[in-house]
Amino acid sequence: MTDETEQTAAPEEKSLFEAPPMGEQERMVEAILFASAEPVTVRELNDRMPHGADAAEALVHLRKRYEGRGVRVVKVGDAYAIRTAPDLGFLMQKEQVETRKLSRAAIETLAIIAYHQPVTRAEIEEIRGVSVSRGTVDQLLDMEWIRFGRRKMTPGRPVTFVVTQHFLDHFGLESARDLPGLKELRAAGLLDNRLPPGALPTTPEDEDLVEETNEGQSELFED
Amino acid sequence: MTDETEQTAAPEEKSLFEAPPMGEQERMVEAILFASAEPVTVRELNDRMPHGADAAEALVHLRKRYEGRGVRVVKVGDAYAIRTAPDLGFLMQKEQVETRKLSRAAIETLAIIAYHQPVTRAEIEEIRGVSVSRGTVDQLLDMEWIRFGRRKMTPGRPVTFVVTQHFLDHFGLESARDLPGLKELRAAGLLDNRLPPGALPTTPEDEDLVEETNEGQSELFED
Amino acid sequence: MTDDFIEKAKREAVQDRLAAEALIVDVDGFEGPLDLLLTLSRTQKVDLRKISILQLARQYLAFVEKAKQLRIELAADYLVMAAWLAFLKSRLLLPPDPEEEGPSGEELAAHLAFQLERLQAMRTAAARLMARDRMGRDFFARGIPEDVTKTRIVTYSATLLDLMQGYARLRTKDEFRPFVMDRDSVFTMEEALDRMRGLIGFAGQWTDLTSYLPEGWESDPKKRRSATASTFAAALQLAKEGKVNLRQDGTFGRIELRQKEADHD
User: Which of B70, B175, C140, C157 could form a disulfide with A84 if both were Cys (CB 3.0 to 4.6 A apart)?
Assistant: First the structure.
């Protein structure tokens, strides 16, 4: 993606119709990211910068500039934000926010959603072996760590859950692909949607379910 | 106080008891200023940084580092904060364009001005049968669809209104003369009631546009 | 040495018993039967992939048995799991019956092992996730965000059609009085009064009020209703003015009207 950007940037820079020099663009991206507590998408950056600016390229420069500094440019989903370097957290006692203590059920449910997304409530229950209480899901929704995803194309068209950009931001993840141990779990087949043997002969719906899950995952995890 | 700090900092750095290297101190100041919800004093910085650190000196380095960048370290009272560079303030504004339908009063007023220009407020009121609110005229002036024309050579020398080039551009008209007359409006099905013959002009009073001292107008309004 | 061994065995038995009781006391703390199974499986001290499901089933059933002895109420799903494990146990112990349909005991056991491994994997993943550097604890967002000031630019739009219709509306309003409702079938009191005043001079005799309805208003029910109401109101008005007398021979009877002067005749 970076290569692409650079390739397209070069001719654009030549035509240099209105776009400010790259150094200026970098300053602009810097100012916008500093000003915002929330991650800002490349699209939004381009929208706010003068016509012809290439926020993606400016970001590459800016990220490099902040390497090893007290704050860094981090990628959150398809957006960017400036965050303090994690090794300096000890200086920030004053800023530390008391995060709500999450129940074990909530933490497990969150992990299942993150690793299996998009995932239905029934699938969460199947994995945990207990019913998911409404409060647990509500709490995660309330914290904006999960949101509703697309409905599954299975009978009843159940809603699915996926994690949010806020979740990625909170846990310092560039994308859901960067979840710790994701590859190993997938390689071990532990993220497969394996149905109980013989419980039901594999009906077309079930095949759909499996396919859907894979699709959803590939969308989320494979660029 | 700064002097004092510097004086004590030197020997302390030599003793290299705990104080981190200046580069590290700069990172710390950077992170604290970034994350803090309020400007931070030097004293507070020192309190939060490891023993032996010299926030004042670190600040000098940091301020220099941000010179010419998209954000700068500024002094606010006796405290410090990171702020957007003043020349980039325009990036912190987002323009939201909202399109609204012009009110009926405004449309009618505009129509009268277009068909009868140059026209006085009293004349507009006579045609509309209601008084014209200041806001309506201001809005049309503000939109640059109408402007003041020459004063009428009648008692009181009232100001007149005419439509602008901008108006013509917006409505795709070459001139106000191109506005369809009532006959044409009826032919186009825009008027469905019968019209008493001769009661109304069939074309806009466009001659007036050229000649401001006009008979057509007096005929229309002064009877 | 033998004594030691026995001592040790005793001690372990006691420990096991205590552990089992602790499990039972904690039963509320378990997140369902699968969680309990996972906890029990740890006592086997082997990799989850090498777990003996048969042994696990025995442990679970023993646990449920113990709970019964202690008269602890177990939630239904624990009992369902117990029943299923009892079935699984028999499947695993008995030689496979070729007649029997459905999955083999091994298949069922393998799936249970998979479920346990998956749950364990999710727990580990959850722990790793929560142990990450987290925003608001280890790293921080901007403390003084500079809000983007949103300047709202309102543009008003109007089409040429709006303009022309607006003008047409104005220039023709004298003719069609757009705010007057459709009065095709309304005979106003003023109209009735006008009409009555003209006719009253001829009302020397008692005449039925309905005969005063204007021509063309008698048949259409809507028109008739309106004309009757206004004519009646006009008659009352005329009576008030002392111009006519009215009479009615009974409730809902005919209303008759006569010119007042006729009285004196």
Answer: C140
Residue A205 has pLDDT above 60, yes or no: no
Would you state the pLDDT for residue A79?
A: 94
Domain ranges of chain B: 22-86, 104-188
3-state DSSP of B18-73: CCCCHHHHHHHHHHHHHHCCCCEEHHHHHHHCCCCCCHHHHHHHHHHHCCCCCEEE
Nearest-CB residue to B31 (from A32, A48, A84):
A84
Does domain A104-188 fall under CATH 1.10.10.10? My reply is yes
CA distance A222 to chain C (A): 20
Using CB atoms within 10 A of its CB, is residue B99 exposed (0-12), middle (13-18) or buried (19+)?
exposed
Place of tokens 């410090």: B80
Report residues of chain B scoring pLDDT below 70. 1-18, 95-96, 182-223
* Mean pLDDT calculated for residue range C235-254: 85
Q: What percent of chain C has pLDDT over 90?
A: 10
Q: Do A96 and C129 touch (CB under 8 A)?
A: no
Q: Best of C138, C156, C174, C177 to disrupt the B interface by mutation (most B CBs within 10 Å)?
A: C156
Asked if A35 lies within 8 A of B82 by C-beta distance, the reply is no
pTM over 0.95: no
Put simply, the answer to whether A85 touches C135 (Cβ < 8 Å) is no
Indicate if the pLDDT at residue C106 is higher than 90.
no
Range ranked top by mean pLDDT from A208-217, C1-10, C121-130: C121-130
End-to-end CA distance of chain B: 87
Partner residue facing C154 (CB), from B100, B114, B193: B100
Of 1.10.150.670, 3.40.640.10, 1.20.1540.10, 1.10.10.580, the CATH number of C189-259 is 1.10.10.580
Angle in degrees, CA C174, C177, C178, rounded to 5: 130
Which of the following CATH numbers is that of domain B22-86: 1.10.287.180, 1.10.10.10, 1.10.1060.10, 3.30.420.40?
1.10.10.10
Q: How far apart are CA A151 and CA C94, in angstroms?
A: 44
The answer to whether C248 contacts chain B (CB < 8 Å) is: no
Task: Give, in degrees to the nearest 5, the angle at Cα B12 between B8 and B18.
Answer: 135
Tokens representing C61? 């059933």
- CB within 8 Å: B71 and A34: yes
- The confidence score (pLDDT) of residue A17 equals 59
Q: Taking the CA of residue A175 as centre, how many other CA atoms within 13 Å lie in the half-sphere pointing to its CB?
A: 11
- Which chains have 3+ CB pairs within 8 A of A? B, C
The residues in C 102-121 lying below 8 A from A, measured between CB atoms, are: 102-103, 107-108, 110-111, 114-115, 117-119, 121
User: What residue type is C235 in one-letter code?
Assistant: A
pLDDT of residue C190: 82
Please check the confidence at residue A217 and state whether its pLDDT lies above 70: no
What is d(CA B15, CA A216) in angstroms, rounded to the nearest whole number? Answer: 59
